[in-house]
Structure formats: C-alpha cells, structure tokens
Design a protein that fits this description.
The protein is an alpha/beta fold. It has two domains: 2-142, Glycogen Phosphorylase B (Rossmann fold); 159-340, Rossmann fold (3-Layer(aba) Sandwich), CATH 3.40.50. The chain is built from 13 helices and eleven strands. α8 links the parallel β6 (176-181) and β7 (209-213). The longest helix has 15 residues, at 64-78.
Length: 343
C-alpha cells in the first residue's frame, strides 16, 4: 500500500511532520510513504529511511489550477497512490486531494482545530490544545494507521554538515555555543531588538559564550546590526545551506528564539530551546516539540488577559503598546533561564 502525504508549508510546520513520518516508517515498514513537499525542505527528511519525496515546482510548473492538475497527473503516472493524507488543508491541497478522490482514492484530512484555537484567542479557553504533531497523528488514524511519534532527535543532518558544524563550534572548554534567532515572520511574535541585545549582554557577563545568529535572507542587515553590538557573535545568514544550519543547531548548547521555524528546527535536532512569546502562545499547539513548558517564556494570560491575541502572529496589537513583549524584560528572561538551570 502506498500513502501520499501532503504538507508544503510553512517551514516550521513541515519540519514538525518528521516525528510522525519517522514513526510511520518504523511502525509500518511495509507501507510505502510518499511526502509531497517543497524541494527546499528536503534536508528535514534525509535521515528517514524509506521515505520517498515528491518535490513539486509550485512557483512555475505546478502553479495554479492547471499546474495542480499537471502535478496530479505526474504523481499518478509515476506511482499508484492508494490513500492521501492531507496535513495542510489549504486551497492547493484541497484541489489536489479532490482530484485523487474523484479517481477513487481514499482521502484523510487534518483537523486543525480552528474553532478551538479561536476560543483560546478570544479568551474563552486557557486549556492547552493538541500539539500540531498530535494533530498530524490524528490524520493518520483517520487513514487507518494509528501512529506514535518517533523518539528524537527527529532531524539528523548529514555527516558532512555535522563535521563542518563541529569545526565551527569547537571552542575552549567551558565556552558555550548559543544560537539566537531574534526575528519571526510577524511583529506580534518579535521581542524588541534592544531587549534581546540586553539579554545577550547579561548572559555574556556570567558565561563565556559565542552567539550564532540565525535568520532568513530578509534579516541579513538587521542581524548585521546585532553582530556589531554583540561581542563574540556570528551572523550566519547566507553562510550555510539548510543542512548545515541544522547541523550547527545540533551542536549548540542552547537556542534562544521567537515563535518561529528556527525554534522548531532547533528542538527537532535535539537542542534545548528557550522560546520567547508575545501575541501567540504555546496553548494553541505550536510550541517547540518535546521541550518543557517552562522553556516557553511569556507573560501569563492571567496577568495580561489580551494574550494570546492571535494564532499565527498576524495583525496589530489591539492595545497599541505591545505589552506582551514590552512587559517581558531582559532581566526577567535572564532570571528565568538561571532558575531553569539550563547552562
């Protein structure tokens, strides 16, 4: 039997499929598993033995309705699909799964819990919701395959990348390698720059360390400013490919990140992650996988009842002062980290 699994974005959400896909390969070795995702995300899955990848060109060849029809035909021509599991549930995946359903293929779809998440954002529920990884598992249950997420680390970089990362992070005994990912896609998920710079200064006063700055190409200039103000820091934008970034993350003693793909990637390679939260909250199921809840640092929803005000970070602060981030001082975060004894 051959299953087609669909998840093409966003980066962190794609990375979070790895515990489930690895679990499927171990628990159902006779089931052929094909993942439809973007070529850029290929390094996430290189260590999952037996997982087949179908890497579409969603920007050109497979863009739009005609492109999706072309994609459906190419998949069907290349291999016989017995069941489709849609872990994305967006317009593109809805069209694609409809084409398979019309040809008689069984389809299972993730329940994203949109109404539950809305209830949290509206302040009607403060109970932690299912994690995205658990929702992925539920979709496999619908397809007839109860699955338990594999044990980590869930993303294993190539040996070549690990060797390179080991050389980069090799340091005198007692010196810490700390990753820093200060940016996110939306402003409601970003701590003020001066707060992060102050936090890293506090850490430097107490520990010998090097800071490795992670971000996308769009963050290059901003991270260059960070680097100029933080002693012993290195701006990695444009220096490494994804496989090498993952390898470097795996060598870190600690990652400090916003609610972002870097948070998820660091957790999935097995690194301790301190995450800083503002308008969003781990309550909605997007926290760093298998990290202790106390590693997610945020103002309590009881202290600041307007948060979380968003599921994904979109929009503007309704108060106008971004209290969820500005109330979270560098000293508070530093003291919390000390109390957690993560050093």
């Amino acid at each position: 039997m051959r299953l087609l699994v669909i998840r093409t974005s966003a980066m962190g959400d794609v990375a979070l499929t790895t515990p489930v896909l690895a679990g499927m390969r171990k628990q159902y070795p006779d089931i052929e598993l094909v993942l439809l995702t973007r070529p850029a995300f290929k390094p996430f899955f290189s260590s999952i033995e037996g997982l087949q990848l179908f890497l579409p060109d969603l920007e050109y060849r497979h863009k739009g309705l005609l492109g999706l029809i072309r994609l459906y035909k190419e998949i069907s021509k290349q291999t016989k699909i017995d069941s489709v599991i849609d872990l994305h549930d967006v317009l593109r995946s809805k069209i694609l799964r409809l084409l398979f359903r019309l040809s008689g293929v069984h389809v299972s779809v993730i329940d994203k819990g949109r109404s539950e998440k809305k209830s949290v954002v509206m302040g009607k529920n403060n109970t932690p919701l299912k994690h995205s990884v658990e929702r992925y598992c539920d979709a496999f249950v619908k397809a007839g395959f109860p699955v338990t997420p594999a044990k980590g680390p869930w993303i294993i970089p190539s040996s070549e990348a690990v060797i390179k990362a080991g050389i980069m992070t090799d340091s005198p005994q007692g010196e810490l390698n700390i990753g820093v990912a200060p940016y996110a896609k939306h402003k409601l998920k970003m701590w003020p720059k001066e707060s992060m710079i102050r936090l890293l200064g506090l850490i430097s006063e107490k520990h010998k360390c090097r800071f490795w700055l992670f971000g996308g190409n769009e963050d290059s200039e901003k991270l260059a400013t960070f680097q100029s103000r933080i002693s012993g820091s290195f701006n990695l934008v444009g220096k490494l490919n994804l496989d090498e970034e993952l390898a470097l993350m795996s060598k870190l003693d600690l990652m400090i990140a916003m609610d972002s793909s870097n948070m998820h990637m660091a957790a999935l390679v097995g690194t301790k992650v301190i995450s800083i939260w503002g308008g969003t909250d781990p309550l909605t199921g997007f926290g760093a996988w298998m990290q202790p809840d106390e590693y997610s640092i945020r103002i309590s929803v009881n202290e600041l009842t307007c948060r979380p005000c968003t599921t994904f970070g979109k929009g503007d602060c309704r108060r106008g002062d971004l209290a969820c981030m500005n109330w979270l001082t560098p000293e508070m975060v530093f003291n919390k980290m000390n109390n957690l004894k993560i050093w």
